[in-house]
Design brief:
The complex is a heterodimer of chains A (452) and B (261).
Chain A lengths: L3 H5 L13 H11 L3 E6 L2 E6 L2 E8 L1 H25 L4 H4 L6 H4 L21 E8 L5 E7 L7 H13 L15 H12 L4 E5 L8 H11 L2 E3 L4 E4 L2 E5 L5 E9 L3 H4 L15 H6 L4 E3 L10 H4 L2 H9 L6 E2 L2 E2 L4 H9 L4 E5 L8 E3 L5 H13 L4 E5 L5 E6 L2 E15 L3 E3 L4 E4 L15 E7 L3
Chain B lengths: L1 E24 L10 E10 L3 E6 L5 E24 L5 E2 L20 H8 L9 H14 L2 E2 L10 H7 L1 E2 L1 H14 L4 E8 L6 E7 L3 E6 L4 E2 L4 E7 L8 E6 L4 E11 L1
Parallel strand pairs in B: 6-7
Antiparallel strand pairs in B: 1-4, 1-13, 1-14, 2-4, 3-4, 5-10, 8-9, 8-12, 9-10, 10-11
Helix pairs in contact in B: 2-4, 3-4
Classes of the chains: A alpha+beta (452), B alpha+beta (261).
């Protein structure tokens, strides 16, 4: 563990830090480039800036090499798991995972049964969320294998920071993170079935529209919306401005499974492409990421990822989950009831910080009610030890203040998994909060990986 | 064993012109362990088939797209099928059919079905086939066949609350009751001798076999049945699914003829 402060020699006053001067300039530039995310509040679309803190998170090369090894291992196993579930289901047959965790969840899509995507890649882009505890141990908090977003923010922040103050980088051995576009392009080309590569966006009212357009620009892919793509004669075509049709071989789609194809999923979808799923099944187009990946990244399945690593790879997991209990199992239920006040309980069906309950924050009646519900539907919950995250310093109103932060690492899968030597560090601006989601007003930092 | 001749006609009429019509049809029987499809002819009008495929449940899907406008869309399928080649379809192992053990939005039981289930005495019955038989008989005797009582999207719980329905409703309720017993089971769309419309029934997994039960007629599925498609509920077996542009009223006509040759 190394901090930027140690790297540069901490000054007492924020104003003396070399990063201080650039903060406003860089944030202004980010605003000009439209680095925003949109949120819907009271049925109104609003765009908010995503506040950038100039003090980078620094990860030294030895530590990152360890993370890299662990992340590759995890993503490999997750890909094998998805292939198995939509294929021979060995992991169910061998009773490593009870079938109800697969079929009773919402992530499993029966439409994907028997489909092997181009080159057998399911999770082309994985966003793995990690936290570091105060003793320095890294824990995996969550796997995001559907459409993880966020890589564009550290990409553009690095690029603007370098331009606004190149001296910040001199003499420091930092891995260049501006290669993400090349990695992504290679990932898309590797699975392409021939023809153009496009990034499919639901449009400018999507929360991550900035990212869609930025990644298209940087990878040289066409940025398209659903009505510009059409399925004809078993193939997908892009209709250009003159009305000409061009074959499309790979779609990095930033719309969720349910809206992808009204003929196979939600028939009310107007942003999807009718029949795209049928030609995907035939192997005539690559969809990035593969539909149905949700079966591998919900909270109930998270518990089983270390078991998957042992099962498919025959290896011990390098990176650990936060200690998790599954009340579905009798022994775990007993533990959860005995240590209720020390645990955080999560409803597997909820997301985005909802359905999260800290055992010690409940009143006696709430606790009794919750335990009754837990006993009635044990499969619905997981319980975790509360991890004491490490604090990271941010600059606020001319002072250094400690805040909670996580790290989203990006793992891209082509011939082999590749880990991007950077990542999105998100922090909570509220000193009492552990929630770092950008929609909750959090900010972000660049992540520097040292090359030596 | 029988040789059956069938015709399946479907016509969709629109009150005014529609355009950009895209469709997926699951209207053709395929070979199984029970039936063998002989000569078959499929025509879709306007003529605009762009491809065929097999979905994740093994059903033949025809899909297509019309660029121009039309006020009428449909298909005519006819052919010959040898039936009753076996009593059941061979099934995959239990761990491969797990998805059919879980309720869908359409089959999820509510109060009414849970109450109904309590009235069926299954305690001393062993075996999925025997349990399913008891469920079928009880359902048949306690639910009324009546057209126009339910709609296409009516769920099992809603149908049982109404107390009446058609083959689709019988099948959904039976699926719901079997799944409550953790028996894997699936919805089947097909045709039957002597009916003027398509039919629906249920297949129950028992020791690596899919066994057909017809709760509407309270009988085991035999050689007078032709199977078209199967899935978790009717939504996986929609004969015609389409989207188009146009603000219109639509009426659907279906006629099915099945004769023994």
């Amino acid at each position: 563990m190394i901090s930027y402060m140690e790297m540069c020699g901490k000054r007492d006053r924020v104003e003396d830090m070399e990063v201080y001067a650039g903060t406003d300039v860089v944030n202004e530039q980010l605003a000009r480039y439209g680095v925003k995310f949109g949120i819907y509040k009271n049925n109104e679309f609003k765009e908010q800036l995503f506040p950038f803190d100039m003090i980078p998170r620094v990860i030294d090369s030895v530590e990152f090499a360890y993370l890299e090894k662990g992340l590759k291992q995890r993503v490999k196993a997750l890909n094998l798991f998805i292939a198995d579930i939509y294929g021979n289901k060995r992991i169910i047959k061998d009773e490593v995972i009870p079938e109800e965790f697969i079929y009773a969840g919402s992530g499993y899509l029966p439409q994907c049964e028997g489909i092997v995507p181009p080159k057998g890649v399911y999770s082309h882009i994985s966003g793995i969320d990690l936290v570091q505890s105060k003793d320095g141990t890294w824990y995996i908090l969550e796997d995001n294998l559907r459409i993880p977003s966020g890589a564009s923010y550290p990409m553009i922040a690095r690029s603007i920071t370098r331009r606004s103050d190149p001296s910040l980088f001199t003499g420091k051995h930092i891995e260049d993170n501006r290669n993400y576009a090349d990695m992504l392009r290679h990932t898309m080309d590797y699975v392409s079935c021939g023809g153009h590569t496009v990034i499919l966006t639901p449009g400018r009212y999507n929360a991550a529209y900035f990212e869609h357009s930025y990644l298209a620009e940087k990878t040289g892919a066409h940025l398209v919306s659903g009505h510009e793509l059409i399925v004809e004669n078993d193939h997908l075509y892009f209709i250009d401005y003159s009305g000409r049709k061009e074959r499309v071989g790979a779609v990095y789609r930033r719309i969720s499974d349910e809206y992808l194809d009204p003929m196979s999923f939600n028939e009310g979808s107007v942003i999807g492409i009718p029949h795209i799923f049928d030609i995907y099944r035939k192997g005539n187009v690559a969809l990035i990421n593969a539909p149905g990946n949700g079966v591998a990244d919900d909270k109930g399945i998270y518990y089983f990822v270390p078991k998957m690593i042992k099962y498919y790879l025959g290896e011990e997991p390098i990176l650990n989950n936060a200690p998790t209990y599954l009340p579905f199992y009798k022994d775990d239920m007993k533990y959860v009831l005995e240590h209720f006040d020390d645990l955080v309980l999560k409803d597997v069906a909820e997301a985005g910080g909802y359905g999260v309950v800290f055992g010690n924050k409940l009143t006696r009646e709430e606790k009794a009610r919750f335990i009754a519900m837990l006993k009635k539907e044990p499969r619905r919950f997981i319980a975790q030890e509360v991890i004491d995250f490490v604090d990271i310093e941010i600059m606020e109103k001319g002072e250094f203040v400690p805040r909670k932060a996580d790290l989203r690492a990006f793992v891209l899968m082509a011939e082999e998994p590749m880990v991007w030597k950077s990542g999105l560090t998100r922090f909570s601006r509220n000193p009492d909060s552990f929630i770092v989601n950008s929609s909750q007003g959090g900010g972000f930092k660049d992540t520097w990986v040292l090359s030596q | 064993m029988k040789r059956l001749y069938f015709e399946y006609h479907m016509k969709l009429s629109f009150s005014s012109e529609v355009k950009e019509h895209r469709f997926s049809l699951k209207c053709t029987p395929h070979d199984t362990d029970i039936q063998k499809v002989g000569r078959i002819s499929v025509s879709v009008f306007p003529d605009n088939i762009t491809g065929t495929d097999t979905d994740s449940h093994g059903n033949i899907t025809i899909f297509g797209y019309t660029k121009g406008t039309h006020t009428c869309f449909g298909f005519d399928v006819c052919g010959e099928v040898e039936t009753g080649l076996n009593e059941y379809e061979n099934a995959k192992d239990l761990h491969m059919v797990g998805m059919f053990r879980y309720q869908t939005r359409i089959t999820t039981p509510g109060k009414e079905i849970q109450e109904f289930a309590r009235r069926i005495d299954l305690e001393n019955i062993k075996g999925s086939k025997e349990k399913a038989f008891e469920i079928m008989t009880f359902l048949h005797n306690n639910f009324t066949y009546q057209q126009g009582c339910t709609e296409m999207e009516t769920t099992a719980e809603e149908a049982l609350t109404l107390g009446c329905g058609v083959c689709q409703d019988y099948s959904h309720i039976m699926l719901s009751l079997c799944r409550m017993q953790s028996i894997p089971c699936r919805y089947v769309t097909g045709m039957m001798i002597g009916e003027g419309r398509s039919h629906a029934w249920v297949e129950v997994w028992d020791d690596k076999k899919w066994i057909g039960f017809d709760p509407t007629n309270n009988k085991m599925v035999g050689d007078e049945y032709i199977k078209i498609s199967n899935g978790r509920d009717f939504r996986d077996c929609l004969v015609n699914q389409g989207i188009f542009t146009g603000n219109v009223q639509q009426t659907q006509e279906i006629s099915v003829i099945v004769n023994e040759i």
